[in-house]
Amino acid sequence: MATTMTTETRAAAAAGTATMAPGARRAVPMWIWLGIVFAALLPLTGGQTGLISNFYFLQLSLMIVYSIAVLGLNLLTGFNGQISLGHGAFFAVGAYVTAILIDRYDMHYLATLPLAMIVCFIIGYLFGRPALRLEGHYLALATFALAIAVPQFLKYRHFEPFTHGVQGINIFKPDPPFGMPLSPDQWLYLVVLACAVVMFIVARNIVHSRMGRAMMAIRDQPLAADTMGINSARTKSITFGISALYVGLAGALHAIIFEFVSPDSFRFELSIAILVGAVIGGIATLSGAVIGGFFVQFIEKYADAATKWVTQTVHMPIELEPWTIYGIVLILLMYTMPMGLAGGFAALWRKIRPG
Amino acid sequence: MTKRTRRDVLVGGSAIAAAQVIGFPAIAQGKKYDDGASDSTIKIGHSGPYSGNASAYGNIGRTIEAVFKMVNDNGGINGRKIEFITYDDGYSPPKTVEMIRKLVEQDKVLLTFNTLGTPPNTAIHRYMNQKKVPQLFVATGASKWGQPKEFPWTMGWQPDYATEGAIYAKHILATVKEPKIGILMQNDDYGKDYYNGFIQGLGDKKSLIAQLATYEVTDPTVDSQMIQLKNTGANVFFNITTPKFAAQAIKKAAEIDWKPAHYLNNVSSSFGSVFRPAGLPASQGVMLALYRKDVNDSQFNSAPDVIAFKAFMAKYMASADIKDDTHNYGYSVTHTLIEVLKKCGDNLTRENVMKQAASLKGFEAPLLLPGIKVNTSATDFYPLQSVQMARVKGESFEMFGNILSNESA
User: Fold this and answer.
1) pLDDT confidence of residue B19
2) Which residues of chain B make contact with A54, given a CB cutoff of 8 A?
3) Per-residue pLDDT at A338 exceeds 70
4) A193, A334, B58, B325: most buried by Cβ count inside 10 Å?
5) What letter does residue B34 receive in the DSSP assignment?
6) By C-alpha distance, which of B47, B41, B112 is closest to B83?
7) Percent helix, strand, coil in chain B (nearest 5)?
8) A24: part of which helix (H) or strand (E)?
9) C-alpha to C-alpha distance for A62 and A42, rounded to whole angstroms
10) One fold for both B31-159+306-378 and B161-290+389-405?
11) What confidence tens digit (pLDDT) does each residue in B330-361 have?
């Protein structure tokens, strides 16, 4: 039973418009492993020599955190075809679970990560269940409501003993263990990097598994998937849960990096940022998540500075609104690379090197 | 400044060497600098919401920038130009942390100034104090910015909410016979800050409070709370609300014909967003505490600081709306920082900046009401703690009574 279903779903997925050919799993190319080793050695090569300041490590950590969040949304939107405008909510839940466990229960910060993931998985799964009846735009709206509601919940009077209301929660940034000669920023960078590597490997395995093929089959041919015996309700809610789990982990890491959470940290703009990161990166690719994380961290955060810089260098007579450059970049990218940067680069590569 | 000959370097080097031999600190001509200060410039960092929901406050940052431009055009402070670096944080605490870390670690500013909002400042509070970088004159009225023992590198500026609340309480005790107080409060940090100050001001007369009604920022109206308060028979109303709700409360009180002595918090001291929407007839007699001049009020037309402010606005912020109070605020607070930097002289270390900020005595920052002065000390990190009571009369405020203070030690 299990084996027949596997082949069938694979067929169904392959029959669809599959932007990511499932096929047989290829080994991770060598250069990616080299890249990870290089990244892991950065605190030694760059940090200890003073080439890379702690501030840059903060930014790199953030980029990786956003990559994990974008990856979570990619699994849901890219591979399963469900749109979510509300993933900032899970980000907030993950962050608060970690902050509350550290603040109130003196838990070790690393021990809070799995708990934040589990809580987010459960909430995501439960939210995914009823939301399944909603398709496309309706689901987008339901998730959007979630993103708006969560910051309000965090301010709710009866949760205040835990959340401290609008005041937020201050936690302490952990020092590196065993007296390692690293700064807290460098150590957290390594923690975040390790989490990301594990989560990307897991995501890759999910996508190439029976579950992944079922996800894509539902995205491409929901009717065919149903007829082939895929339990689409179950698959969809589990996907929603997994997706929330990823974003929740990102939120938890974010809380530790910033030593602070508050309702204002997780407004709905965050959900939009994650979605934009996913779309720009390339919605149904794993590599797109890395690009998306880069985009969220560096393009979006510095949109204002870039706009200002352009206004000053070109001596523009009018003062541009802070987000002008960001908007222009977004529109251009969508026109020139509708498949996201990952898709765009892949297409470019194929053009340059045919066959 | 940039042209340094080799001889200068050599001379300087040997001077330093000589000084060290004799045992003097290695500073030529008593000049002392930390990151961000030099013979030619002082770097000041700032972050505020230029985008997002709170972007109306972005005008404060723009005003500060314009004031420093004016200062630089006039030769700078003690001959040093101000380099003002400001970033958009969208009122998002993590973004503030990132921008402030950029300012401190990459741009290497001497201090950060007037960072905006209680949550963003809370997020960087500990960082600034760990790094020992002055977090001066933050743009929030929370009372937690004046803790010199725990946070010696952080200082507020405006009268804090608790101080203001205490002043209303004292005023009520002094002027209203047999007060019975009804309170409407926004249920968050800001509301509680006011409320706690008010309770403190009442002292042992806490029982005068007939009812405390609260609302959430997300509530559509405060109508039912107003009816509740009226039914308690209260003859004093303390209105702790943000502009939208303040307008609703004033309007509703008039509709249900409840006419208590009405005290409104300074947060909602705006004709444009409170009294006009509520209706001017309904707003007459509402009392509130002010500390800055309303430059649009004709009674201040001949005040030199108002004239100077208007000239500044015309020259440096020609396209801005002068009715917007954020410009007024930005102008006044920036001049307080300028005073601190002037007093620092050639000793531009972070330690000296805090020392000078904590020794302002009777400084009359422009646009403060007559008689209201900036006072700080090593134990008093609340620069402004005096207000003047005023009531709405016609289309402007009528000041009455003395300057009321709640100065801490």
Assistant:
1) 43
2) 105
3) yes
4) B58
5) -
6) B41
7) 45, 20, 35
8) none
9) 15
10) yes
11) 999 999 999 999 999 999 999 999 999 999 99
Cross-chain Cβ contact B93/A258 below 8 Å: yes
Q: B198 to each of B107, B204, B247, B266, how far by Cα in Å?
A: 42, 12, 21, 14
Query: Domain B31-159+306-378 belongs to what topology?
Result: Rossmann fold (3.40.50)
CA distance B161 to B147: 15
- Residues B136-155 have a mean pLDDT of 93
For chains A and B, CB pairs below 8 A equal 78
CA distance B331 to B327: 6
Alpha-carbon dihedral sign for residues B232, B236, B241, B243: positive
pLDDT of residue B137: 96
- Gap from B133 CA to chain A (nearest CA, Å): 16
Q: How far is CA A297 from CA A291, A300, B198, B268, in A?
A: 10, 6, 44, 36
Edge-to-edge strands of the sheet including B41-48?
Answer: B81-88, B41-48, B111-113, B135-136
Q: How far from chain centre, in Å, is Cα A260?
A: 20
Angle at A314 between CA A312 and CA A319, to 5 degrees: 55
- The partner residue sitting opposite A165, judged by closest CB among B101, B126, B188, is B188
Phi/psi at B372 (5° precision): -95, 125
In angstroms, the CA A116 to CA A72 distance is: 14
Neighboring chain A residues of B92 at a CB cutoff of 8 Å: 264-265, 267, 269
What share of chain A in percent tops pLDDT 70? 90
pLDDT at B218 over 80: no
Residues of B in contact with A322 (CB under 8 A): 50-51, 88
- Predicted confidence (pLDDT) at residue A202 exceeds the cutoff of 50: yes
Which residues in chain B are closer than 8 Å to A55, comparing Cβ atoms?
101-102, 105-106
CA dist., res. A155 & res. A192, Å (int):
28
Q: Quick: pLDDT tens for A60-73.
A: 999 999 999 999 99
Average pLDDT over residues B258-267: 94
Do residues B107 and B83 touch, judged by C-beta distance below 8 A? Answer: no
Interchain contact, A165 vs B106, CB within 8 Å: no
B382, B408 in Cβ contact below 8 A? Answer: yes
Helix (H) or strand (E) holding A44: none
C-alpha distance across the termini of chain A, in Å: 39
Per domain, the residue ranges of chain A are 60-170+181-261, 302-355
Q: Which two tokens stand for residue B345?
A: 């002289």
**B53 contacts chain A (CB < 8 A):** yes
pLDDT in tens, A254-294: 999 998 898 888 888 889 889 988 988 888 888 889 988 88
Exposure string of A101-120, with b = 16+ CB inside 10 Å and e = fewer, is: bbbeeeeebeebbebbbebb
Residue A62, pLDDT score: 92
Structure tokens at A83: 């749109």
Q: Pick the residue of B83, B91, B105 with the most A CBs within 10 A to test the interface with A by mutation.
A: B105
Biggest alpha carbon–alpha carbon distance for chain A: 70
Q: For residues A82 and A352, what is the distance between their CA atoms, to the nearest angstrom?
A: 34
| Length reported for chain B | 409
Please tell me which residue, A228 or B109, carries the higher pLDDT value: B109
pLDDT in tens, A90-147: 999 999 999 999 988 989 999 999 999 999 999 999 988 887 677 778 888 888 888 8
Quick one: pLDDT band at residue A7, thresholds 50, 70, 90? very low
Asked if B203 has any chain A CB less than 8 Å from its own CB, the reply is: no
Nearest to A155 among B53, B105, B188 (CB): B188
Q: Could you report the per-residue pLDDT of B194-213, keeping only the tens digit for each?
A: 999 999 999 898 899 999 99
**A204 inside 8 A of chain B by CB:** no
**What residue spans define the domains of chain B?**
31-159+306-378, 161-290+389-405
